[in-house]
Specification:
Layout: E1 2-6, H1 10-21, E2 25-30, E3 55-56, H2 57-66, H3 68-76, E4 80-86, E5 90-97, H4 100-111, E6 117-121, E7 124-130, E8 133-139, E9 142-145, E10 148-151, E11 169-172, E12 175-184, E13 198-202, E14 207-212, E15 217-225, H5 237-246, H6 248-254, E16 259-261, E17 266-267, E18 272-275, E19 290-292, E20 298-299, H7 307-325, H8 329-343, H9 345-362, H10 375-380, H11 392-396, H12 409-417, H13 430-440
Parallel strand pairs: 1-2, 1-10, 2-6, 10-19
Antiparallel strand pairs: 3-5, 4-5, 7-8, 8-9, 11-18, 12-15, 12-16, 12-17, 13-14, 14-15, 18-20
Helix pairs in contact: 1-4, 1-7, 2-3, 2-7, 3-4, 5-6, 5-13, 7-8
């Protein structure tokens, strides 16, 4: 089957390689030329490419199953696997310490060597159609015939936006962030960690996260409500560094004797939680012969590092669906849409609920006990009721969906009803952080 894929990001490259290995003739189209001759890779138009990432076990397992050479190249580039013993499941990959660029380089190097896969540079003008179904792409005005078209163009893809104009779940996250990458000096010990992948600090009106990557590289994120304009100055290097010195956990990691910055301060774009299925406004397939996958189906707040994992989970399911239904693309679309609705949409709704509750708490509101607690508060309550603990691991590892917390939610609710609240991480209040920023932002 001739397959055309829009987008050479993780979803497009993974699917393209795996489908070519199944005998499909695959063309993956992207405007990006790939790494430059000097080794740099600007990846213009893909904001998240240079920002912090966490890679979960689902990403590792997907590569090992379908494109093991990409996993080997990822490891050879320095990516560091993290294993964890899960009761009843054995030793499973918890995730991988790596930057997004390192991951994509390994995947791209594998794809360009794959027989039956053409990595084509160009701009997709439109999905073409005949007799009411997709029949290929228009690339820079030239036709590219295909029996199946996959939109893996990501969260910002526009070529098919008119086919599904409105997300069916989610909305703006209401939070913004800035981040910067650092690298530990040779022989320097890392700073504090809450788990092998990250450290997080929760404060009055903002949050900080450290994601650990390969070769001693790590990313520092400072997260604020979008409406908080007084902290927008954190995008300036002087203010960001002053904030790092003021927040104890960040100060430990970014101390000049321990590490050095290796990137500018990067401001994140508009963050969204959204879910879009395979159907248009009328509930029918947006266009027969066209399948959406990856971030074009769902995206979630980056705090939990679920983005690439949800894309790989979708890609593997789409492969299974194509294996089962072959050229019956109507059944492929219907089956894949049902799976995404059952397994992807709940994560979007979960994040949207958490983000809304977090914004309210940052605005000074108390925990709302009139409705189900958001998942982050259920997790926090384990500090007061250890009986909640067994539900935490499967949820955090995405081994079980958000509804896996439902059985312990009443226990968490009882904890909050008694007046218990999570303790804030020691460090400056929002007002104190605002003062730090105001004293350092260039005038």
């Amino acid at each position: 089957m001739r397959t055309a894929i829009i987008g050479a990001g993780p979803t497009g490259l993974f699917l393209g390689t795996a489908l070519a290995r199944r005998g499909h003739q695959v063309a993956v189209v992207d405007r990006d030329p790939g790494p430059s001759p000097n080794g740099t890779w600007p990846r213009r138009g893909v904001m998240q490419f240079h920002h912090a990432h966490g890679f979960r076990g689902q990403v590792v397992q997907a590569l090992q199953r379908e494109v093991p050479e990409a996993y080997d190249r990822w490891r050879a580039a320095g990516a560091e696997p993290i294993m964890m013993d899960i009761p009843g499941r054995g030793s499973l990959p918890l995730g991988m310490r790596s930057r997004r660029e390192t991951f994509e380089r390994a995947l791209r190097q594998t794809a360009i060597r794959q027989e039956g896969l053409q990595l084509r540079r160009g701009h997709v003008d439109a999905v073409t159609a005949s007799e009411g179904r997709a029949d290929g792409l228009s690339v820079d005005g030239d036709p590219l015939a295909a029996d199946l078209v996959i939109d893996a163009s990501g969260r910002a893809g526009r070529v098919t936006s008119a086919l599904r104009p409105t997300p069916t779940a989610g909305g703006p996250c209401g939070i913004a962030y800035v981040d910067r990458q650092y690298q530990l000096h040779e022989g320097a010990e890392p700073g504090p960690l809450l788990n092998p992948l990250a450290w997080q600090g929760d404060y009055d009106g903002y949050m900080v996260i450290i994601f650990v990557h390969e070769h001693g590289i790590f990313s520092v994120l400072i997260i604020r409500p979008t409406v908080d304009r007084e902290l927008i100055g954190l995008r300036h290097e002087e203010a960001f560094e002053a904030a790092c010195r003021a927040v104890p956990g960040l100060a430990a990691w970014t101390d000049a004797e321990r590490s050095r910055p290796i990137t500018p301060v990067l401001a994140g774009g508009t963050l969204m939680n959204y879910y879009r299925g395979q159907t248009g406004p009328d509930g029918r397939p947006a266009l027969p012969g066209l399948v959406f996958a990856g971030d074009s189906v769902c995206t979630t707040t980056p705090n939990f590092g679920r983005g690439v994992a949800t894309s790989m989970l979708q890609a593997e399911e789409l492969l299974r669906t194509l294996d089962a239904h072959g050229t019956d693309l109507a059944s492929v679309s219907e089956s894949f849409d049902a799976w995404c609705g059952a397994h992807m949409r709940p994560w979007v709704e979960d994040h949207a609920r958490m983000d809304e509750a977090l914004r309210r708490r940052w605005a000074g509101e108390d925990v709302d006990l009139s409705e189900r607690l958001p998942s982050d508060l259920i997790l926090a309550a384990v500090a007061a009721d250890p009986g909640i603990g067994p539900a935490v691991g499967p949820y955090l590892g995405m081994l079980a969906g958000p509804d896996s917390l439902d059985p312990v939610e009443p226990r968490a609710h009882a904890v909050y009803a008694r007046g218990w609240r999570p303790s804030l991480t020691p460090g400056p209040s929002r007002a104190e952080l605002v003062a730090v920023v105001a004293a350092t932002v260039p005038r």
